Amino acid sequence: xxxxxxxxxxxxxxxxxxxxxxxxxxxxxxxxxxxxxxxxxxxxxxxxxxxxxxxxxxxxxx
Length: 62
Known about the structure:
62 residues
């Protein structure tokens, strides 16, 4: 498996420069997956892509 991981700052940028608090809220609601590596939080690329697709689907449905 070739999973990509994003730092919190990178994930914020990928989601249109959302705030840090909003990103952690999404993680708390299990809309984004966080993993820890040496105390640093990383967002899984899989969950980031899934969330971005969900946003696009909502836009198309509107």
